[in-house]
């Protein structure tokens, strides 16, 4: 069996994004939006508008340490929370508060701001091309004197049933992910496997992205079912085995799918239910159709089978070539002429960063 752990970790180094506190560019964009909103809201208050104060906070993959570089043609996606100091009774229509935010940010960049179902999005260009966007989720408190948050859902044209304040616990979800493993080596492998699977789904759903599971869905599933694969000998360095850990997690996901019906041609439809571990405790994949879920299951099975095939390859070149087919061109393949040398690489130590 070829040992490809070195290449798995090299792949992770190439795709991973640093957290907010480590990434100056992200901090600058977040802080610029914060300043813009404060300035605009202050001007609106001087003109007589009643705009509550607010704070920003980090959320999403950058906060959790699961952010990845976008694949070719993709763009960065940065998540920021806006927590307004009022309760939901101040805005019976949550779209109204999102509109206040969108109006304040209009003209902040050369691309129009867009209101989406769960956020207000600000787009940025780099070298003349749209390169990344910041998703601003709008929160207020559920009730007066309550610490529970609700997130604004809805956009222009949404019906009454789609415009609502929905319970949400963004900070608690980040804390849950960040605290899944107290051991730093286990946490590092947990995050590497999540990042690799996020790149895998980008590669495997290139042409039918509507069928792709969300990155947070994969993250929460991993939080529930991921089991580290690390050998700790009595002497010598710790040896990671990310392929085995990923294979076990993917297999667990496949086995958790249940039969949900049949298509008109008689083929089976499947669903995977993964409950969010914090309020509102809903199924994180609930917006995916059974057809999309069945496609997701099929591709997980293909990935599991490929990871099994990788295990049986003797040459790291052949093993990494199989990995490249699943994870894209970013997965490194050693030079064939150096295969004999790389076969001797058996372990990596616990020095890998998360």
Automatic annotation (TrEMBL):
It holds the Pfam family DncV-like_NTFase. One of its GO terms (molecular function) is nucleotidyltransferase activity. InterPro entries: DncV-like_NTFase, NT_2-5OAS_ClassI-CCAase. GO terms for biological process: defense response to virus; nucleotide metabolic process. It catalyses: GTP + ATP = 3',3'-cGAMP + 2 diphosphate. Keywords: Antiviral defense, ATP-binding, Magnesium, Metal-binding, Nucleotide metabolism, Nucleotide-binding, Nucleotidyltransferase, Transferase. This is Cyclic GMP-AMP synthase.
């Amino acid at each position: 069996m070829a040992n490809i752990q070195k290449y798995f970790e090299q792949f992770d180094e190439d795709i991973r994004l640093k957290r907010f506190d480590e990434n100056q560019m992200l901090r600058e964009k977040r802080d610029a939006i914060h300043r813009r909103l404060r300035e605009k809201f202050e001007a609106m208050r001087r003109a007589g508008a009643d705009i509550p104060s607010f704070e920003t906070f980090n959320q999403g993959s950058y906060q959790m340490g699961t952010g990845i570089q976008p694949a070719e043609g993709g763009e960065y996606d940065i998540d920021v929370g806006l927590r307004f100091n009022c309760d939901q009774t101040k805005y019976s229509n949550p779209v109204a508060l999102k509109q206040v935010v969108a109006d304040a940010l209009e003209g902040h960049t050369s691309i129009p701001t867009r209101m989406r179902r769960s956020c207000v999005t600000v787009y940025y260009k780099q070298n003349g091309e749209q390169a990344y966007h910041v998703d601003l989720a709008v929160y207020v408190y559920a009730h007066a004197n309550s610490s529970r948050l609700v997130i604004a859902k809805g956009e222009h044209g949404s019906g009454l049933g789609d415009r609502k304040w929905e319970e949400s616990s963004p900070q608690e979800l980040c804390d849950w992910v960040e605290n899944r493993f107290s051991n730093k080596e286990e946490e590092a492998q947990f995050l590497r496997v999540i990042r690799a699977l996020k790149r895998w789904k980008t590669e495997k759903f290139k042409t039918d992205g509507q069928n792709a599971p969300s990155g947070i869905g994969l993250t929460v599933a991993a939080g529930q079912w991921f089991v580290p694969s690390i050998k700790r000998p009595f002497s010598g360095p710790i040896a990671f085995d990310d392929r085995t850990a990923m294979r076990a997690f993917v297999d667990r996901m496949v086995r958790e799918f249940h039969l949900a019906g049949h298509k008109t041609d008689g083929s089976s439809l499947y669903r995977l239910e993964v409950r969010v571990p914090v309020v509102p405790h809903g199924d994180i994949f609930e917006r995916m159709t059974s057809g999309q879920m069945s496609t997701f299951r099929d591709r997980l099975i293909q990935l599991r089978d490929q990871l099994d095939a990788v295990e049986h390859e003797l040459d790291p070149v052949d093993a990494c070539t199989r990995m490249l087919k699943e994870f894209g061109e970013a997965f490194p393949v050693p030079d064939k002429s150096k295969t004999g040398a790389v076969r001797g690489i058996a372990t990596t130590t616990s020095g890998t960063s998360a």
